[in-house]
Specification:
The complex is a heterodimer of chains A (393) and B (245). With 393 residues, chain A is of the alpha+beta class. Chain A folds into two domains: 2-40 and 266-390, no CATH class; 60-247, no CATH class. Chain A contains 15 helices and twelve strands. Chain A has helices at residues 2-11, 13-49, 76-83, 130-136, 153-156, 163-168, 208-214, 234-244, 256-262, 265-296, 298-306, 311-347, 356-373, 375-382, 386-390, and strands at 55-58, 73-74, 103-115, 122-128, 140-144, 158-162, 182-185, 188-197, 204-207, 220-221, 223-228, 249-252. In chain A, helix 2 (13-49) packs across helix 9 (256-262) and helix 2 crosses helix 12 (311-347). The longest helix of chain A is centred in the first third of the chain and has 37 residues, at 13-49. In chain B, 32% of the residues lie in helices and 27% in strands. Chain B is built from seven helices and ten strands. Chain B has helices spanning 59-66, 89-99, 115-127, 135-144, 160-172, 190-207, 218-222, and strands at 15-28, 31-44, 48-52, 74-79, 82-83, 100-103, 178-182, 210-214, 226-231, 234-237. Classes of the chains: A alpha+beta (393), B alpha/beta (245). The interface between A and B is medium-sized, with 23 and 29 residues.
Chain lengths: 393, 245
């Protein structure tokens, strides 16, 4: 029976190839979409947490990354946490707060999500105060110079980028990025002042002051990163900050990757749709292929029946053929996914992780779609009248 | 040169195929077509009979019913002691698998499989197991049918006569109780017809294979032990066993 299935596939190589291609399309969709989501999420989440600061201080309410109102938190919290709050002559009613003793440094960061280069995906931009940012992170300028304050005309439209960004992008002059190149950030031209390492938060950083001016001028940021003195317990410091400044979200930086992934609910829904769609594509391709095959092979099914093949055996033969096509389609899908991954990563800044989970889901969808798709044609074949089948022209 | 005539005797107590007042009516549009009007026939174990008659007389219908591929409208069919008319579709399939081999006018080999592949497929269906079948039995039959050197040829690489010999080999490879042959020489020239008829005769003589053959060809019918004549869904003459040819 195996040889019959294999011989049938060899007999119609074009149809076999088209069916395999159909199954592989579903597999590629699942593997690349899943891999893309995972790759981008992992990369972004990794860069979110790839800082030395142990605590993230965010505005109250639901934690989210959004393109609207990115600067919702007063940037003054950074100074307040480090230095405490004292009543000022212009605001005598303010409640005084002592510095949070365990904190070594804090820096405000503005963050905005913009459309990625070539309108593919999205990318974040950080607005930072370089002077305090370097105190809470291990940022190092490896080419050019540090980012200016943005408080003067000369530094307001400067940016620093990480090495990956510099290597994967072109400047506005369509040439590889180097120091002095112009790049487009928030729809405005910025001059690359330096290249930094390691990658952390967004790949592109501009002065916080410039970002604040672009979004209305208030002295706000998206969050404050807090670095503790050595061996200070994170939980206790978070408790203290919450006591002093209630109503905000104060979380350990180590929780950021998980929060980041949870925040991408819409992406998960999209992935579910892609997985479902892929299963339908695989199923329909196999259904049509097997339906045509069975119509063409009606007489052969009649012969099988004349030889005493049971309905179950006929279903098994057809399902085996569908499973063979599906398996070859799945393998082809994996190969095409690997090629697709290489093409995407070499021509865009997108990152695709070919991880085992999405390979398994893709493979399973391809196989299940094929086997389920062949079921109706198989049942139909099994129920053919043997005499009519034998006289089929 | 004609061989000397040898008398051949059958044990009619050992009936392999028995039909009792078989009737078969088809509905074609609004018209009832009476293909069989009450056929009663006995075939003894080891007998080789030919059924003759004009087109539309019900020969093929009788053969399909005898093979468990059609259910008669009424009457009884008993094969090797089992009442087929009382069987479910699955039981008839099982009976066909165990006890019946078919030979068709158009050979009906699997075009994608070699001659040996066609035989092995029949063995696998019969045995329902992934073993190698019965290589010794297969070899004997292939030798008898002079097909040893054609094992790896696909049907389209064989002549019509060779294809029919492969089809006969497939029909008998599992040593069925009954071989039903539907115009086995209908698509062959006279030379190949003679070869195929010799093969059937040889199988009957050597293995005691029971054969029921439909034919239009009087020469083919003359090779059988007995000739049954049909007309208008009835048996005109059940024939008398005659001598081996």
């Amino acid at each position: 029976m195996d040889s019959l299935s294999v011989a049938n596939l060899k007999q119609r190589p074009l149809r076999t190839a088209v069916s395999m291609a159909g199954v592989s399309l579903g597999v590629v969709l699942v593997v690349l979409m899943g891999g893309l989501t995972r790759g981008m999420t992992r990369d972004a989440a990794g860069r979110q947490s790839n800082v030395d600061a142990e605590i993230r201080f965010l505005p109250g309410g639901e934690i989210s990354i959004t393109t609207s109102n990115p600067l919702m938190l007063s940037a003054r919290y950074a100074g307040a946490i480090v230095n405490g709050v004292k009543p000022a002559p212009e605001n005598p009613g303010v409640e005084p707060k002592p510095p949070v003793a365990a904190v070594a440094a804090a820096t405000p960061v503005g963050q905005y999500v913009q459309t990625g280069a070539g309108a593919i995906g999205f990318e974040m931009v950080d607005g930072i105060d370089y002077a305090s940012f370097k105190d809470v992170t291990s940022i190092k300028i490896v080419q050019g110079r540090p980012l200016g304050s943005g408080g003067d005309e000369q530094t307001a439209h400067e940016a620093i980028v990480d090495r990956f960004y510099a290597e994967k992008n072109l400047g506005l002059d369509n040439k590889p990025i180097r120091i002095g190149s112009k790049i487009k950030v928030l729809d405005q031209p910025f001059t690359v002042a330096g290249v930094y390492e390691p990658p952390m938060l967004a790949r592109v950083k501009i002065p916080l002051k410039t970002m604040q001016e672009l979004f209305g001028g208030a002295d706000n940021c998206s969050f404050v990163m807090v670095k503790l003195k050595d061996r200070e317990p994170v939980d206790r410091v978070i408790e203290t900050i919450n006591d002093y400044y209630p109503g905000n979200n104060v979380i350990p930086t180590s929780e950021i990757p998980a929060l980041y992934s949870q925040g991408l609910f819409a992406v998960d829904v999209l992935l579910d749709v892609v997985v479902g769609l892929s299963a339908v594509i695989s199923g329909l391709v196999i259904l049509l292929a097997m339906f045509t095959t069975i119509t063409e092979r009606t007489r052969e099914i009649g012969i099988l029946k004349s030889l005493g093949a049971s309905k179950r055996l006929i279903v098994t033969i057809i399902e085996r053929e569908a499973a063979l096509i599906s398996a070859m389609g799945v393998v082809l899908g994996f190969v095409l996914s690997a090629i697709g991954r290489y093409s995407i990563q070499s021509s865009t800044r997108l990152i695709v992780d070919l991880d085992i989970k999405w390979l398994l889901i893709g493979g399973l969808i391809g196989m299940a779609g094929g086997v389920i798709g062949a079921f109706y044609p198989a049942i139909r074949a099994a129920n053919l009248d043997p005499v009519e089948a034998l006289s089929y022209e | 040169m004609k061989r000397p005539v040898q008398p051949k005797f059958f044990n009619y107590m050992s009936t392999i195929l028995e039909t009792v007042d078989l009737k078969m009516t088809y509905r074609v549009g609004k018209v009832d077509v009476h293909a069989l009007r009450g056929v009663t026939l006995n075939v003894a174990r080891g007998e080789y009979i030919a059924i003759m008659g004009p087109s539309g007389c019900g020969k093929s219908t009788l053969l399909h019913i005898a093979g468990g591929m059609l259910t008669p409208t009424s009457g009884r069919l008993i094969i090797d002691g089992e009442d087929v008319t009382a069987m479910s579709d699955a039981q008839r399939t099982e009976l066909r698998r165990r006890k019946i081999g078919f030979v068709f006018q158009r050979f009906n080999l699997f075009p994608t499989l070699s001659a040996e592949g066609n035989l092995k497929l029949a063995e696998r269906i019969y045995a329902r197991a992934k073993n190698g079948g019965n290589p010794e039995g297969r070899r004997r039959i292939l030798k008898l049918l002079k097909l040893e050197d054609k094992l790896h040829h696909k049907p389209l690489e064989l002549s019509g006569g060779e294809q029919q010999r492969v089809a006969i080999a497939r029909a008998v490879v599992n040593r069925p109780a009954l071989v039903l042959a539907d115009e086995p020489t209908g698509n062959l020239d006279s030379e190949n017809s003679k070869v195929v008829l010799d093969m059937l005769r040889g199988l009957n003589n050597e293995f005691g294979q029971t054969i029921v053959m439909i034919t239009h060809n009087p020469e083919a019918a003359a090779r059988a032990d007995r000739v049954v004549e049909m007309r208008d869904g009835l048996i005109l003459s059940a024939g008398v066993p005659h001598t081996d040819s």
